[in-house]
Specification:
alpha/beta; D-Maltodextrin-Binding Protein, domain 2; 2 domains; five-stranded mixed beta sheet; 11 helices; 11 strands
Length: 257
Amino acid sequence: MSLLRRPVIAGLLAGLLLMLSPVHAPAQERPVTIFAAASLKTALDNALADYKAKGGAAASVSYAASSALAKQIAAGAPADMFISADQDWMDHLAKQNLIRPESRVTLLGNQLVLVARAGAKPGTIADLPALLGADGKLAMADTAGVPAGKYGKAALTKLGLWDKVQGRIAQAENVRAALALVARGEAPAGIVYLSDARAEPGVSIVATFPAGSHAPIEYPAALLASSQGGAAKLLEFLSSPAARRHFEEQGFTVLVK
Protein backbone atom coordinates (compact mmCIF):
# COMPACT_ATOMS: atom_id res chain seq x y z
CA MET A 1 0.00 0.00 0.00
CA SER A 2 1.38 3.37 -0.90
CA LEU A 3 2.26 5.86 1.77
CA LEU A 4 -0.14 8.35 0.22
CA ARG A 5 -3.16 6.07 0.67
CA ARG A 6 -2.55 5.27 4.35
CA PRO A 7 -3.65 8.69 5.78
CA VAL A 8 -6.78 8.57 3.64
CA ILE A 9 -7.77 5.14 4.93
CA ALA A 10 -6.97 6.16 8.52
CA GLY A 11 -9.21 9.20 8.15
CA LEU A 12 -12.07 7.10 6.81
CA LEU A 13 -11.78 4.65 9.70
CA ALA A 14 -11.78 7.49 12.23
CA GLY A 15 -14.90 8.95 10.65
CA LEU A 16 -16.64 5.55 10.71
CA LEU A 17 -15.84 5.06 14.39
CA LEU A 18 -17.21 8.51 15.16
CA MET A 19 -20.44 7.69 13.37
CA LEU A 20 -20.81 4.42 15.29
CA SER A 21 -20.07 5.98 18.67
CA PRO A 22 -23.12 6.42 20.94
CA VAL A 23 -24.54 9.93 21.09
CA HIS A 24 -24.83 11.14 24.64
CA ALA A 25 -27.96 13.21 25.35
CA PRO A 26 -27.63 16.26 27.58
CA ALA A 27 -27.80 15.41 31.26
CA GLN A 28 -31.33 15.66 32.64
CA GLU A 29 -32.02 17.75 35.71
CA ARG A 30 -32.57 15.60 38.76
CA PRO A 31 -36.20 15.29 39.98
CA VAL A 32 -37.40 18.02 42.31
CA THR A 33 -38.73 16.80 45.66
CA ILE A 34 -41.81 18.66 46.89
CA PHE A 35 -43.58 18.41 50.24
CA ALA A 36 -47.12 19.70 49.67
CA ALA A 37 -50.36 20.02 51.62
CA ALA A 38 -52.74 17.12 50.88
CA SER A 39 -55.42 19.45 49.52
CA LEU A 40 -53.15 20.38 46.61
CA LYS A 41 -52.92 16.89 45.15
CA THR A 42 -55.24 17.05 42.14
CA ALA A 43 -54.30 20.56 41.01
CA LEU A 44 -50.58 20.20 41.66
CA ASP A 45 -50.38 16.82 39.92
CA ASN A 46 -51.95 18.39 36.83
CA ALA A 47 -49.63 21.40 36.93
CA LEU A 48 -46.54 19.21 37.30
CA ALA A 49 -47.58 17.00 34.38
CA ASP A 50 -47.95 20.14 32.27
CA TYR A 51 -44.52 21.39 33.38
CA LYS A 52 -42.85 18.09 32.51
CA ALA A 53 -44.59 17.96 29.12
CA LYS A 54 -43.07 21.37 28.36
CA GLY A 55 -39.57 20.06 29.06
CA GLY A 56 -39.28 20.88 32.75
CA ALA A 57 -37.74 18.65 35.39
CA ALA A 58 -39.77 15.80 36.82
CA ALA A 59 -41.01 16.15 40.38
CA SER A 60 -41.62 13.75 43.23
CA VAL A 61 -44.33 14.88 45.63
CA SER A 62 -45.09 13.83 49.19
CA TYR A 63 -48.65 14.85 50.12
CA ALA A 64 -49.72 15.03 53.77
CA ALA A 65 -50.92 17.48 56.40
CA SER A 66 -48.83 20.66 56.42
CA SER A 67 -48.08 20.07 60.09
CA ALA A 68 -46.68 16.58 59.47
CA LEU A 69 -44.59 17.74 56.52
CA ALA A 70 -43.12 20.72 58.37
CA LYS A 71 -42.13 18.48 61.27
CA GLN A 72 -40.48 16.02 58.87
CA ILE A 73 -38.49 18.82 57.24
CA ALA A 74 -37.43 20.14 60.64
CA ALA A 75 -36.25 16.63 61.50
CA GLY A 76 -34.04 16.53 58.42
CA ALA A 77 -36.22 14.99 55.70
CA PRO A 78 -34.74 15.87 52.27
CA ALA A 79 -36.90 18.13 50.12
CA ASP A 80 -36.45 21.03 47.70
CA MET A 81 -39.77 22.84 48.09
CA PHE A 82 -42.53 23.14 50.69
CA ILE A 83 -46.10 24.26 49.97
CA SER A 84 -48.15 24.69 53.13
CA ALA A 85 -51.90 25.20 53.60
CA ASP A 86 -51.29 27.99 56.09
CA GLN A 87 -48.68 30.60 56.94
CA ASP A 88 -48.04 29.22 60.45
CA TRP A 89 -46.21 26.07 59.38
CA MET A 90 -44.11 27.99 56.86
CA ASP A 91 -43.25 30.45 59.64
CA HIS A 92 -42.27 27.45 61.78
CA LEU A 93 -39.60 26.49 59.24
CA ALA A 94 -38.55 30.09 58.59
CA LYS A 95 -37.74 30.59 62.27
CA GLN A 96 -35.34 27.64 62.02
CA ASN A 97 -33.69 29.06 58.88
CA LEU A 98 -34.85 26.03 56.88
CA ILE A 99 -36.29 27.96 53.92
CA ARG A 100 -34.88 30.53 51.52
CA PRO A 101 -36.84 33.62 52.64
CA GLU A 102 -36.38 35.45 49.32
CA SER A 103 -38.17 32.59 47.51
CA ARG A 104 -41.28 32.61 49.71
CA VAL A 105 -44.49 33.49 47.90
CA THR A 106 -48.17 33.29 48.88
CA LEU A 107 -49.33 31.18 45.98
CA LEU A 108 -53.01 30.32 46.49
CA GLY A 109 -56.18 30.89 48.44
CA ASN A 110 -59.07 28.53 49.15
CA GLN A 111 -62.54 28.35 50.71
CA LEU A 112 -63.91 26.20 53.52
CA VAL A 113 -67.07 24.22 52.77
CA LEU A 114 -69.50 21.87 54.48
CA VAL A 115 -70.02 18.67 52.51
CA ALA A 116 -72.30 15.65 52.66
CA ARG A 117 -72.71 12.52 50.51
CA ALA A 118 -73.28 13.07 46.79
CA GLY A 119 -76.84 14.19 46.10
CA ALA A 120 -77.26 16.23 49.29
CA LYS A 121 -79.25 19.40 48.79
CA PRO A 122 -77.67 22.85 49.18
CA GLY A 123 -78.42 24.52 52.49
CA THR A 124 -76.70 26.61 55.16
CA ILE A 125 -74.06 26.02 57.81
CA ALA A 126 -76.87 26.10 60.37
CA ASP A 127 -78.10 22.81 58.87
CA LEU A 128 -75.08 20.98 60.31
CA PRO A 129 -76.80 19.51 63.42
CA ALA A 130 -79.62 18.17 61.24
CA LEU A 131 -77.11 16.62 58.81
CA LEU A 132 -75.40 14.79 61.67
CA GLY A 133 -78.65 13.44 63.07
CA ALA A 134 -78.72 11.68 66.42
CA ASP A 135 -75.35 9.93 66.31
CA GLY A 136 -73.52 10.94 63.12
CA LYS A 137 -69.91 12.15 63.16
CA LEU A 138 -68.49 15.30 61.63
CA ALA A 139 -65.36 14.52 59.59
CA MET A 140 -62.57 17.07 59.99
CA ALA A 141 -58.81 17.19 59.76
CA ASP A 142 -57.06 17.22 63.14
CA THR A 143 -58.21 20.45 64.79
CA ALA A 144 -55.07 20.84 66.91
CA GLY A 145 -52.46 21.16 64.17
CA VAL A 146 -53.70 20.54 60.62
CA PRO A 147 -54.65 23.82 58.86
CA ALA A 148 -58.04 22.61 57.56
CA GLY A 149 -58.98 21.43 61.04
CA LYS A 150 -57.86 24.68 62.64
CA TYR A 151 -59.81 26.76 60.11
CA GLY A 152 -62.85 24.55 60.65
CA LYS A 153 -62.76 24.79 64.43
CA ALA A 154 -62.35 28.57 64.26
CA ALA A 155 -65.34 28.86 61.90
CA LEU A 156 -67.59 26.64 64.00
CA THR A 157 -66.63 28.59 67.12
CA LYS A 158 -67.34 31.92 65.43
CA LEU A 159 -70.74 30.69 64.26
CA GLY A 160 -71.70 29.30 67.67
CA LEU A 161 -71.69 25.64 66.60
CA TRP A 162 -68.50 24.27 68.13
CA ASP A 163 -70.00 23.48 71.54
CA LYS A 164 -72.79 21.54 69.81
CA VAL A 165 -70.52 19.29 67.76
CA GLN A 166 -67.12 19.08 69.47
CA GLY A 167 -67.93 15.73 71.05
CA ARG A 168 -68.87 14.28 67.68
CA ILE A 169 -65.78 15.02 65.61
CA ALA A 170 -64.17 12.24 63.58
CA GLN A 171 -60.66 13.66 63.34
CA ALA A 172 -58.54 12.59 60.37
CA GLU A 173 -54.82 12.95 59.72
CA ASN A 174 -55.39 15.37 56.85
CA VAL A 175 -58.20 17.01 54.90
CA ARG A 176 -58.25 14.40 52.12
CA ALA A 177 -58.70 11.68 54.73
CA ALA A 178 -61.64 13.62 56.18
CA LEU A 179 -63.09 13.95 52.69
CA ALA A 180 -62.83 10.19 52.19
CA LEU A 181 -64.83 9.51 55.37
CA VAL A 182 -67.78 11.42 53.90
CA ALA A 183 -67.41 9.95 50.40
CA ARG A 184 -67.44 6.40 51.83
CA GLY A 185 -70.49 7.14 54.00
CA GLU A 186 -68.60 6.73 57.27
CA ALA A 187 -69.56 10.26 58.31
CA PRO A 188 -72.71 12.10 57.17
CA ALA A 189 -70.95 15.45 56.92
CA GLY A 190 -67.48 16.95 56.81
CA ILE A 191 -65.56 20.21 56.63
CA VAL A 192 -63.05 20.42 53.78
CA TYR A 193 -61.72 22.90 51.25
CA LEU A 194 -63.60 23.78 48.08
CA SER A 195 -60.74 22.26 46.06
CA ASP A 196 -61.20 18.92 47.85
CA ALA A 197 -64.94 18.88 47.27
CA ARG A 198 -64.42 19.48 43.55
CA ALA A 199 -61.97 16.60 43.34
CA GLU A 200 -64.35 14.05 44.91
CA PRO A 201 -67.54 13.07 43.02
CA GLY A 202 -68.75 11.17 46.08
CA VAL A 203 -69.65 14.37 47.97
CA SER A 204 -71.83 17.43 47.43
CA ILE A 205 -71.29 20.90 48.82
CA VAL A 206 -74.02 21.90 51.27
CA ALA A 207 -72.75 25.38 52.12
CA THR A 208 -69.67 27.61 52.13
CA PHE A 209 -68.38 29.07 55.39
CA PRO A 210 -68.33 32.88 55.50
CA ALA A 211 -64.82 34.21 54.86
CA GLY A 212 -64.95 36.23 58.08
CA SER A 213 -65.55 33.14 60.22
CA HIS A 214 -61.91 32.03 60.01
CA ALA A 215 -58.47 33.33 59.13
CA PRO A 216 -57.72 33.74 55.41
CA ILE A 217 -56.82 30.39 53.83
CA GLU A 218 -53.45 30.94 52.19
CA TYR A 219 -50.90 28.58 50.66
CA PRO A 220 -47.33 29.86 50.91
CA ALA A 221 -44.60 28.14 48.89
CA ALA A 222 -40.85 28.36 49.36
CA LEU A 223 -37.60 26.68 48.44
CA LEU A 224 -35.87 24.92 51.29
CA ALA A 225 -32.43 26.12 52.31
CA SER A 226 -30.97 22.82 51.08
CA SER A 227 -32.80 22.82 47.72
CA GLN A 228 -30.88 21.90 44.57
CA GLY A 229 -31.42 21.33 40.87
CA GLY A 230 -34.39 22.82 39.06
CA ALA A 231 -36.52 23.69 42.10
CA ALA A 232 -36.28 27.44 41.50
CA LYS A 233 -37.45 27.07 37.89
CA LEU A 234 -40.35 24.88 38.99
CA LEU A 235 -41.48 27.34 41.65
CA GLU A 236 -41.30 30.08 39.04
CA PHE A 237 -43.60 28.02 36.80
CA LEU A 238 -46.09 27.33 39.61
CA SER A 239 -46.23 31.08 40.24
CA SER A 240 -46.77 31.94 36.58
CA PRO A 241 -49.90 32.44 34.44
CA ALA A 242 -49.06 29.15 32.69
CA ALA A 243 -49.96 27.17 35.83
CA ARG A 244 -52.94 29.30 36.82
CA ARG A 245 -55.67 27.27 35.10
CA HIS A 246 -54.70 24.05 36.85
CA PHE A 247 -55.36 25.63 40.25
CA GLU A 248 -58.45 27.61 39.30
CA GLU A 249 -60.10 24.54 37.75
CA GLN A 250 -59.98 22.88 41.19
CA GLY A 251 -61.42 25.85 43.06
CA PHE A 252 -58.27 27.59 44.26
CA THR A 253 -57.83 31.34 44.04
CA VAL A 254 -54.46 32.32 42.57
CA LEU A 255 -53.00 35.04 44.79
CA VAL A 256 -49.55 35.50 43.32
CA LYS A 257 -49.32 38.34 40.78
